[in-house]
Design goal:
This protein is about 40% helix and about 15% strand. With about 375 residues, the chain is α/β, with parallel strands linked by helices. The chain is globular, with a radius of gyration of 21 Å.
């Protein structure tokens, strides 16, 4: 298949969760023989932290503004099999207009920010990446989130016709067990961009345990942390880490923490890519609980859940052999069910199913 993608970014992993996911997905699509082109607006805050300037085996087109690239985009999609527009694409409305002009390619919208999209719609906000006609013109809507609310919400709010989840994933070529590094050593680590809506949970499950266990070392890695963050002497900080450093970061942790953004936790069925990254690196995980987490990992066997500071402290008190067993089970499940290769297969299957359904509908109309 020839697949053309218009996305937020694949070239920079700074302060966003899109880039790492697209790198893994595109890599395995290309490896399976598909033709992939990715369009990304070249913005200063990503250009200043660009860690993926080319798409190996595919095409990455960075452009200054939509008028400068529109004709190139038209040429790229003329013989495409599928066009994918993602949430937070800088020129989402213009891309939508271009896509809906096309008769042949499948028109796909992939929401990598489903809970945020729906929360903003419920609040009456206008979205820069979804136009006033919603998603009724798209052949398929893919969602980073699943669960029982997904179809109803997208049909009711955005007029979507076909909705399917395409969850997060991990590239095991990038995230795998490596030798621990002394500068990343931690009894409990946390990797994530600062977010106000995660702060309360982060304090309960990370900051307060650090204050209670001054004998242990705690480590945060991420971007955009404010000066007034409630640090303590045993909490250490590493500014933004590129994906190439994630494996060493996780592998140097006795335990690592996952904290879900509030809108994601409220909706449920929305696993962070960090969960799969840490599991693939063989690191035991503590996570805040949310609906549907058992669909991805078995609580108590493949992941530890913590809803309070005492829960987090209890997890830290586990014996090493218990943590190693939990980590091993989580890694095995991740490689079986949550790899980038697996998601690439799922994406192609969904595109083929959608094409077949469209062909059947057309034949019915012509009969």
């Amino acid at each position: 298949m020839k697949i053309v993608i218009f996305g937020l970014t694949i070239s920079s992993s700074w302060g966003n969760g899109h880039a790492t996911l697209w790198r893994g997905l595109c890599k395995y699509l290309i490896r399976a023989g598909h033709d992939v082109t990715f369009f990304e607006r070249d913005v200063p805050y990503y250009a200043g932290a660009r860690d993926f300037p080319q798409l190996p085996g595919g095409s990455l087109l960075l452009y200054a503004s939509w008028p400068t690239v529109e004709q190139t985009a038209r040429r790229a999609i003329v013989d495409a099999d599928a066009i994918i527009l993602t949430s937070y694409c800088a020129d989402g409305l213009e891309v939508t207009e271009l896509m809906l002009e096309q008769a042949r390619p499948l028109k796909i919208f992939y929401d990598l920010d489903t809970p945020i999209t729906l929360a903003r719609l419920h609040a009456g906000e206008r979205l820069s990446y979804i136009g006033p006609d919603g998603l009724a013109g798209f052949d398929l809507v893919l969602s980073f989130t699943g669960g029982p609310r997904l179809v109803e919400e997208y049909r009711k709010k955005l007029g979507a016709r076909q909705i399917m989840p395409l969850y997060g994933h991990v590239d095991p070529d990038v995230h795998h067990p490596v030798m621990p590094q002394p500068h990343y050593r931690a009894d409990l680590s946390y990797l994530g961009t600062y977010s106000d809506d995660r702060q309360r949970t982060l304090e309960q499950l990370f900051v307060h345990p650090a204050r209670a266990r001054q004998d242990l070392r705690f480590l945060i890695g991420g971007a955009q942390y404010p000066q007034d963050f409630p640090w303590s002497p045993n909490i250490y900080f590493v500014r933004h880490l590129p994906p190439a450093e994630h494996a060493a970061f996780f592998a140097s942790s006795r335990l690592t923490l996952n904290v879900t953004r509030r809108a994601m936790a409220d909706m449920g069925w929305c696993p962070s890519g960090r969960l799969f990254e840490a599991a693939a690196c063989g690191t035991p995980i503590i996570s805040d609980p949310w609906d549907g987490i058992e669909h991805f990992f078995s609580p108590g066997e493949e992941i530890l859940l913590a809803d309070s500071t005492p829960d987090a402290l209890a997890a830290l008190a586990h014996d090493d052999d218990v943590l190693e067993q939990i980590a091993r089970r989580a890694r095995e499940r991740t490689l079986d069910e949550h790899s980038s290769a697996k998601r690439a297969e799922e994406l192609i299957s969904l595109l083929e199913q959608t094409h077949g359904r469209n062909a059947a509908d057309l034949a019915t109309e012509e009969a």
